[in-house]
């Protein structure tokens, strides 16, 4: 299955599905160019050494810096050779830093260092509110917001605010209608990659979520939780007064009760179908029509019965 990447401009937050379009945008974006110009001014101002600096400091700075290094791929400019070398990798895709544990490659040494901690278990960044520890500072910052409820990422269109930038990016798609993640099999589109992965299980038949108490399997975690609550939860479990049927769901118990209720019957006017449930008759009548009121949230499939949708999603 093919998963499409999304590329987001760090200045104006415009999103692109095609990397070439993203690169072209970076050369033209006025907000991004203004940020680069300001960064260049700041770097030049910072680079002006005071007369009080020692000769050793001057020598160290001179060895690291090169005058106005530029990228031939775009208008990126920097004072330091190591910065231009690292930036060029964003265009070439080169990843020279290799993990000795799993051979995964990275375009920056600091990213490799963080990745290696996943193998070693090292978590040097610790939360001051609880026992949580993280492999990098950004993960710790995100975690701390669960304690402080700080929401620094604000939507410019509505009052929505989030604890991290990725949540804001997903939220913005509710305004733009953008669905950048596309299924390579049926062309269904999604706003977040996790929805695409979940949808992909419809095509592959994968059911990674298994019930520990029976043979039930499903492709969506929420379906497993519902299954456990209805079929295996002893909390608030109810038993039918006329048979041994039991469930912790009031809705399920009400529907089951109609099996024993023979006082009222509903007949189909198009065939000989009879039911003691009005809703069951309404569902049956769709057999005689083309009505399919239950659409799949992940593809174009529609069904006459909600039970078929549940089976389809599993």
Element layout with pairings:
Elements: E1 7-8, E2 15-16, H1 19-28, H2 30-47, H3 55-64, E3 65-70, E4 77-80, H4 81-92, E5 97-98, E6 105-106, H5 109-120, E7 125-126, E8 133-134, H6 137-148, E9 153-154, E10 161-162, H7 165-176, E11 181-182, E12 189-190, H8 193-204, E13 209-210, E14 217-218, H9 221-231, E15 238-239, E16 246-247, H10 250-260, E17 266-267, E18 274-275, H11 278-285, E19 294-295, E20 302-303, H12 306-313
Observed structural traits:
314 residues, alpha+beta, Double Stranded RNA Binding Domain, two-stranded antiparallel sheet, 43% helix, 15% strand
* CATH H-level homologous superfamily name of the domain at 261-314: Classic Zinc Finger
Quantity of strands, as a count: 20
Low-confidence stretches: 49-68
> Which word captures the global form?
elongated
The separation of the N and C termini measures 18 Å
Oligomer: single chain
Please state the second-level CATH architecture of the domain at 261-314.
2-Layer Sandwich
Count of DSSP helices? 12
CATH class of the domain at 261-314: Alpha Beta
Helical content (DSSP H or I, runs of 4+): 40-55%
Radius of gyration: 29 Å
**Quick check: average pLDDT?**
79
CATH topology of the domain at 261-314: Double Stranded RNA Binding Domain
Strand content: 5-15%
User: How are the strands of the biggest sheet laid out side by side?
Assistant: 1-2
Domain C2H2-type: 69-96, 97-124, 125-152, 153-180, 181-208, 209-237, 266-293
GO molecular function: sequence-specific DNA binding; zinc ion binding
Subcellular location: Nucleus
Main location: nucleus
């Amino acid at each position: 299955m093919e998963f499409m990447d999304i590329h987001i401009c760090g200045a104006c937050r415009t999103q692109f599905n095609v990397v070439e379009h993203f690169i072209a945008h970076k050369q033209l974006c006025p907000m991004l160019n203004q940020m680069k110009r300001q960064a260049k001014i700041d770097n030049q101002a910072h680079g002006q050494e005071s007369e009080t600096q020692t000769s050793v400091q001057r020598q160290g700075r001179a060895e690291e810096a090169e005058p106005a290094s530029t990228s031939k791929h775009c208008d990126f400019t920097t004072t330091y050779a190591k910065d231009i070398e690292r930036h060029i990798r964003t265009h070439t895709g080169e990843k020279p830093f290799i993990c000795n544990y799993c051979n995964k490659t990275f375009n920056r040494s600091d990213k490799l260092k963080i990745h290696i901690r996943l193998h070693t278990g090292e978590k040097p960044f610790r939360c001051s509110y609880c026992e949580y520890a993280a492999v990098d500072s950004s993960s710790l910052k995100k975690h701390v917001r669960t304690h402080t409820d700080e929401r620094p990422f604000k939507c410019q269109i509505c009052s929505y605010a989030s604890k991290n930038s990725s949540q804001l990016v997903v939220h913005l798609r509710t305004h733009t209608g953008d669905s950048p993640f596309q299924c390579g099999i049926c062309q269904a589109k999604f706003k977040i990659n996790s929805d695409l992965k979940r949808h992909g299980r419809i095509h592959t038949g994968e059911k990674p979520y298994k019930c520990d108490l029976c043979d039930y399997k499903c492709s969506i975690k929420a379906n497993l939780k519902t299954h456990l609550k209805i079929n295996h939860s002893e909390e608030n479990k109810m038993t039918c007064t006329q048979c041994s049927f039991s469930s912790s769901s009031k809705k399920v118990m009400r529907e089951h009760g109609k099996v024993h209720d023979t006082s009222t019957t509903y007949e189909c006017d198009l065939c000989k179908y009879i039911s003691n449930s009005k809703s069951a008759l309404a569902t049956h009548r769709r057999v005689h029509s083309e009505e399919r009121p239950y659409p799949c949230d992940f593809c174009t499939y529609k069904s006459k019965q909600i039970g078929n949708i549940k089976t389809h999603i599993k």
